[in-house]
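User: Can you fold this complex?
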Amino acid sequence: MAGFCRECEAILPEKGGDGRCPHCRSPRLLVHAELHELAIGHIDCDAFYAAVEKRDRPDLRDKPLIIGGGHRGVVSTACYIARLSGVRSAMPMFQARKLCPEAVVLPPDMEKYRQAGRQIRQLMGELTPLVEPISIDEAFLDLTGTESLHRMSPARSLNRLARRIESEIGVTVSVGLSHNKFLAKLASDLDKPRGFSIIGRTETLSFLAPRPVGQIWGIGRVSREALARDGIVTMAQVQEMPLDYLVERFGQMGTHIWHLSRGLDARRVEPDSAAKSISAETTFDRDIADLSSLAAELWPLCEKVAERLKAATLAGGVVHIKLKTAGFRLITRQSRLSAPTQLAETIYRAGHALLEKEAKGDWFRLIGIGIDALQDPRDADPIDLGDPDSQRRRKVEEAMDSVRAKLGHDAIIKGRSLKPNR
Amino acid sequence: MKLTIERTLLLKALGHVQSVVERRNTIPILSNVLAEAKDGQLGLTATDMDLAVVEKVAADITAPGAATVPAHTLYDIVRKLPEGAQVQIELAADGQQVTVKAGRSRFALATLPKEDFPAIHAGDLPHKFPLSAADLKGLIDRTKFAISTEETRYYLNGIYMHAYAAGKQTSLRAVATDGHRLARVEMPLPEGAEGIPGVIVPRKMVNEVRKLIEDFDGAIDVSLSDSRIRFAFADIVLTSKLIDGSFPDYQRVIPTANDKILEVDRKEFRDAVDRVSTISSEKSRAVKLSLKPGILTLSATSAENGSASEELEVKYDGQAMEIGFNSKYLLDVADEIEGDGLELKLADSVAPTLLRDMADAQALYVLMPMRV
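Assistant: Here's the predicted assembly.
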């Protein structure tokens, strides 16, 4: 079987060996019959936020570290040491502290993580133009046809990328390699952290068979429950069912699970697939109920969204808001604008109108606002005969933008961003 | 309650009031019409809580009284009765049912207590003035098409009516806009309308009153407060809440410095726009106007359908320019112009354009161009 050493990249002999690299004696060997034939990779950073913090704070290296929000809130990332005590992402902070009282807790520094994420993406881009980021620390790569360019197989290219990320960015990643996106993503999760897993065509069916249907991409709680009502729990069961039956029983979802349970996933790796929506959200330090305080939280988010719209030369036609109640109930509302916009002010007005209807005394822990129906900004913010002030507001914002371009974001702000002293 | 009434009279009155009744009602009584018999007349009342209509019609009253019955059902029954039938309506002694009899047909309808029917409190309507049906039709017809359907801007979901003074000239103005187009119509201020507040008459009221005055040509008594408006004419009284909001300061969006003047024959222009727009995509309905001295070329292209163009001889001596419009908006305006000449005042291809009937200074339209 084909194989190489993950540390020194030495090619392993076809037969024999003692489980260690004959050259550097490392046990980190990658061996698989289809090793050099698979080309779809999924790269997922290991405990990313925590890893970036540990990189910058070597004193924290051997301590349990939790990245999570201020006064309360939830764990956004726990390092692997903290995970040993049972701390998990999305766990309420108080529970995490109870499980791991010695943990160091840091608030997230998103700007720093984004920057590291961008650097990683840049390294990925040197490998192939077909990079599809899923989040700040996760991406698919299609390395089909790169063998002659890099003079090495996709598997070796990915391994070298993992090593580069480790040495140049200072965080570790786990790699999944297979023949489609669904399987590549499952693979990267098999051997975390610093892992490299391969799912070949030969073992695809047997690999999937024992797994729960909930692991199929796109199958959430509701679908899982619907399937469970029919007694369908594992992919093995789906593999034995005829397509016709599943379609009749579950419609489109039937086709979907039939294919994915067989490891058939025709989705392409779509490079920087144009954003479908731009949004921003914030979790409050303390729950908020009154409209004016909620609106004060909303405005900077609108500015953020508008800034990103303008940077991407896009305009959006539908504004949506998101609220999470203290009891974790999620509320989303949207409204279509009379014309597409790029302006923070217009996004704010639409968002505020939606917010007004929801802020009726409930306590909220999170607010978010976003815009979709993204499009070319040529038709954005036209003269509106029903709104004589629209052009003036547009000019005000353009003037603010040009001041900010020269002097920085805080050089000029709107009065509504000033918060009264509390 | 017991009465007999000629089918045609009843049908006409029911036809008027039933259209106010919403098809789906969460409050059952609002599906009913209130029938009140007294003094030789049958009064029919329907309401959706925002809008109420009362119509009186002559009937032979045997026993005065009142009852409520499902409006649409009663209308359907009367509609299907033979012409010339005499309809007898009677509330059973136990008050549980209303029977409708005509010839050999007999219907028993469920009824709801008349006490539950919402009373129409219009409150005090301090402003009263007469308006001829022709004038009201003129105000409505030339502005209605521009009423917005955008729910978030509820204050644009109606026609804004207000008194306007320019020097010694006072006028009654009706304005509507959906943001893309604006229509403004004015007429001499009727006596008694001095000092009326600016009011936004909701679309449903506009539609109902327009329907009811179609065949009426007398004077309408308009009365209003700052929260309600009433139109009374013939045997009909329509009362509606007004939209509670403030209409934008529309004067500021009406261009005053457009200097490129295009004059077209209304019918020629209308028909050419209509023909060329056959090609426009369903979504944008865009037509392009290319102007050169003396010649206007209308054109449309669409990826699916192909292209079209038509040339018109026009009066124009400004610079050559191109501008695009939603053809539907052009047709809506052209259709409301009665004279032969239509004038367009343009600035450039992105600025609001002014349109008006060359024979009528009362109406003015503003259209936003679209990119083509």
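Chain B has three domains: 2-116, 127-252, 255-367. Chain B has six helices and 25 strands.
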